[in-house]
Model the fold of this input.
Amino acid sequence: MAQDTLPGTTDRRLAGLLTLLAENSMIVISGARIAKEIGVSRSTVWRWVQRLRALGVKVKGQPATGYFLEQTADILTPNMLRQRLKGSLFGKHIYHFFKTDSTNRVALELGHAGEAEGAVVLSEEQTAGRGRAGRLWHSDRAVGIYVTVLLRPRLAPVQAPLLTMMAGLSARSAVQAVTGLTVDLKWPNDLLLNGKKTGGILTEMHAEPGQIRFVIVGIGLNVNQEKFPGALADTATSLRVETGKSQSRMELLVRLLREFENDYNRFLREGMEGVVARFEEVSTYAKGKRVRVTNGTESYVGTTAGLGPEGLLQVQRDDGKVMTVIAGDVTEAR
Ligand code: BTN
Done:
């Protein structure tokens, strides 16, 4: 795909306007200068400013005086991201949306259309963010990171779940580096802080027997939410809640994609053992945790007994039988 455009992606020139404003936040830039720099008329600049405002971007000013961003903006503009990811696998094709249903859905579509490995789809807001087991992923505007990457690894389909665990490790490292917080990983795809969920990963793939055609790894990270609605209030948290201050989504995303690329290359080079070993080392859920496992057919309580060679969780039931968890929900049993 030559251009990072799809129906609904942020127009390149609109993104240019945003970048210009964001790079000069608090500084008034005249409509004439903006028009000249991005190559549109002054009236188009005015229309676009109104569009940005409707999307929740805090642009102040008016045609006569010029425009500025009210505060240091933390918008994941594709131009800035591309610059920060220069030379990276993920810096080439970035599809940015202000709003879409699900970045995983878009990435799947791109995969089927032949998009190359490394494409990144991100949205400021999702209207139907997908979670595991058909759940919804709460994706309010501009407070979280909602990103999906497209990969074409030469791996067998059974190895795809390891990419979920690997992504968890990458996200953990990124959060640690940017915020200082130590995230716990709950097998297979949850990022926890203080026992509450602050992120999740949803991997989906298109495969033939024995060979992955492409796989998409979707990562949701709760960054600047101050509170969560309904039942989520007790089970979800964000980096802001845990640190008491707002965090930069841009810094987190850049670090996350850089960590992901390193981990991915290592995985392809060295195989799955490293991922399994690292996950076991950092996850308090991997060994010795009392858990309840619930899947479509049964529910039982036991103690986690490490991961199998392919990364599947082993749970020793109270009657001594060791179960391998292939699918299902694992929750702490108290
Ligand atoms: C889970 O823990 O249930 C997985 C949540 C995954 C959410 C992310 S947000 C970005 C990407 N797009 C989606 O629709 N889902 C994933």
